Amino acid sequence: MSAAKSFCRAGRIGFCFGVRRTVRMAQEILARTGRLTSIGEIVHNPQVMEGLVRRGLRVVSSPEEVGAEDFLVRSHGLAPQVVEEIRRRGAVISDGVCPRVKKLQTLISVLDTSGFSVIIVGDRTHPEVKACMGFGRRVEVCPPGGAVSRLPASARAAIVGQTTLSFDEYLRSVRAIVDRLSAPCVRVFNTICRVTEERQAAARELSGRVQTVLVLGGRQSANTRKLYEICKAVNPRTFHVESLSDLAAFPLSGVRSIGLTSGTSTAEEFIRAVAEHLRKNGYEEVPGYAK
Q1: How confident is the model at residue 1 (pLDDT cuts 50, 70, 90)?
Q2: Largest CB tally within 10 Å, which of 11, 102, 108, 269?
């Protein structure tokens, strides 16, 4: 970087197409009706959620709290049994599920119908995985790098992955699972989101070219946490920034180059605010990674 103090953005930053679609759907419904309900946060980003709540979004935790009202299925999805219960209660349902996640849900359903036991590599507590578990009758979850608590006993098994995993992480888990399976027929599917892969690759490259990396996004966001881990492994001076107040805690003295990357649910408005903060502290934005 040629400037005395400079910063640049990774080649992939801001909302992914799935999150942008879900947020736009919520905004359009709220603009039309002024009221909307979701089970759980529709995206894992505090600034985005605060803005939607101010406009009339109501976040609840169970279908019993939903009535005859506009309802948006979150980007991570919901189990079909939950959606059916909400429909039974008279809600007008809009489907905000990320297309990549929807594809994974459909795959699990098809595999289940075809007689496969399905192993999901992912975080059992993540809303995407919790929703996907509802699309099959024989579904087990294996944490990345962990062990399957109960291996399927059927003759046919299929392995899929939470869409926000890194591909390398998924591949390591797949190899470990396949070594333990006794099923004569095992099928493995690459369900990792390509946008996530590209973003991780761009962040990894950027981390090796700057002194400090700021990973922008919510701490509840799985893909943002994964980006942080990837960047931190390359560059120890990597910091997770969820809000502007976090910036005050990061030592910038002597730092001449800063790289910005973000999770897929981080709004452009927040990225611009961080960039403006850096400019006020004497940093000049330079190009070079906006591919």
Answers
A1: very low
A2: 108
